[in-house]
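Backbones bend. Our protein:
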Amino acid sequence: MAANPHPDDTARSILRIISALVLSFITTSAVNAASFPCGGKLSAQEQLICADKRLSALDYRLSALYQMALEITEARQNLRTEQRLWLSTKRPKCLNATCLLTLSQARIDELTTFIQQHATPGPPVISGSIHHRATSAGGYCEPGDELDWFSVSLETHDDLISGNIDGIYNCGQKVWGPIDITGRRLGNVALVQFNASFSDENAPPSEGIIVVAHKRIYWRILSEVAGESYVPESEVISFGQ
């Protein structure tokens, strides 16, 4: 009987898969999507990020993963301190795009590992929805009406993921039907792709992450959405809502 793989080997394998998926996704569909405005006074590193689509997409993804990590951990202050040190002491050492690509990918891997360690192994079927007060009354509804909602529904088969997201925005005036999501479960996280643009069926795919922790479903977009969209950047859904 073959020996079970060491946990560290499994983690390294997962990170290699994630890195390959990230680089493939960025190469095929990246747009200028930095996590900060590309205008005004910028540091040398920020200028490099804004000038390079791959760096810009990685920066957007890194920021999204950091926000996800903050949401699911109780050690937020430690994580904030760690991120500030990375931004103030490690990133400034990179004076070219190659260095920033390597450094950013390494930080993405670290944050992904952190999220996996703080997430709960999700069940084969995950489903939930959340309702919000209407984002805009606009004469269409009464103040306080809860007509905005977002839902996630997915199944896993041998680590392959399929399902959909759905919702209504702006007091029921912006309606988008179910949007298919597909992807892979990598450890305790699910990475999915979907077309978030309601006006362009051929828009480049966006990518999202779904994490289960604290009896909640955490949803966050990892790449800038191409085209007009009402898919929320992030949501936290309690099971049974």
